[in-house]
Amino acid sequence: MRTSLDPDAPRLPLQAGGHTLIRVVSDILRGLDIDLPVQAAVPDLPPWCVPLPAVTYTQTSKDVYPPLQRQLALETITDVSTSAPAAHHVYVDGSVQADGRAACAVFSPTMEPPVLADSWIGRRLPTSSSSTYCELNAILDAVTLLVRRRVNGAVQQNP
Q1: What fold is seen in the domain 50-157?
Q2: I want to staple 106 with a disulfide (CB 3.0 to 4.6 A). Which of 3, 54, 82, 121 is the partner?
Q3: Is the pTM of this model over 0.90?
């Protein structure tokens, strides 16, 4: 069993009538003129083959004057956008309402909306989630979208 799962393992020779059986079945199937639909969507890569994204962030603190924080963030975005060829801009946001409802969303003006969605990615999160949890889920959705499409992008959290 173990050797039969290994793609590089040598295959056992077919029994005497094996070649004839395969040829007859193949001829019958070709004679039926069955139209097999081609798979429309390419399946995602398995988790062990997904390339890891390069992550860059702006290091700052709350003690820094807010316009300076914004300027540092814009400089980082510019650096990343110019270093990555054809980088898409992806904006993310997550929030918690006063009644505890939580959600996150992803939007990009430079990419087509995801397939099978009327709008951009937006989803509800567990009630009473923290705002940090909401923001991190939005970033995760954006990175997942970029990795699945195999494109470069700069993810920016809305202030």
Answers
A1: Nucleotidyltransferase; domain 5 (3.30.420)
A2: 121
A3: no
- State the chain's mean pLDDT as an integer: 76
Distance (Å, whole) CA 150 – CA 144: 10
* Tokens describing residue 98: 């006063």
- 3-class secondary structure per residue, 44-112: CCCHHHCCCCCCCCCCCCCCCCHHHHHHHHHHHHHHHHHHCCCCEEEEEEEEECCCCCEEEEEECCCCC
CA 147, CA 143: separation in Å to the nearest integer? 6
Contact criterion met (CB below 8 Å) for 152 and 84 = yes
Domain ranges of the chain: 50-157
